[in-house]
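TA notes, week 10

Several of you asked for a full example with nothing omitted. So below is the full record: structure tokens for the whole chain, then the designed sequence directly under it. When grading your own attempts, check the secondary structure regions first.
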């Protein structure tokens, strides 16, 4: 009888554990945000051209992000594909450090994780976002036509940050 109670207690404990979150990067590899990033240059519409998703995930369509200047800084309206799922956000964007964004009021276990700008080209046409947890990462471009040279550079940055490029889905 005691064994039965112990087994039932262990089973309930296992069920109470939170599901492990998917990570697309090796957390043992350092991740660095862009130290010369200029937030005011984000203003405008960006098209999502790539994102990480689990193998075999049906995925979703390319998304968009609209950064708008406000008296309090920047606001963001985004409809993105993150980890193979459509995710929306509308709200304020704060900068906790250079190249590190925080979405006000967003789910801290989801889209509200700190967004790190891993790379942006000098003309602010292509932007690579990642998270220290590796829960998501994506590439934004000013339009949907990302040239091969900037895609290559973005992939190299993600690879350098420990991301598994086999799980990067490029939207066509």
């Amino acid at each position: 009888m005691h064994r039965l109670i112990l087994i039932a207690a262990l089973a309930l404990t296992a069920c109470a554990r939170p599901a492990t979150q998917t990570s697309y990067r090796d957390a043992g590899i350092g991740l660095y945000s862009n130290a010369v990033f200029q937030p005011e240059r984000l203003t405008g519409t960006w098209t999502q051209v790539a994102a990480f998703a689990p193998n075999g995930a049906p995925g979703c369509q390319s998304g968009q992000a609209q950064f708008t200047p406000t008296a309090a800084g920047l606001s963001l309206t985004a409809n993105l594909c993150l980890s193979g799922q459509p995710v929306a956000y509308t709200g304020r964007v704060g900068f906790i450090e250079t190249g590190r964004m925080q979405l006000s009021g967003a789910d801290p276990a989801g889209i509200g994780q700190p967004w790190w700008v891993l790379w942006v080209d000098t003309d602010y046409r292509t932007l690579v976002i990642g998270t220290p947890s590796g829960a998501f990462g994506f590439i934004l471009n000013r339009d949907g036509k990302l040239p091969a040279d900037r895609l290559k550079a973005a992939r190299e940055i993600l690879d350098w940050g420990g991301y598994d490029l086999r799980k990067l889905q490029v939207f066509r």
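Confidence is low (pLDDT under 50) at residues 1-20. Use that as a sanity check on your answer.
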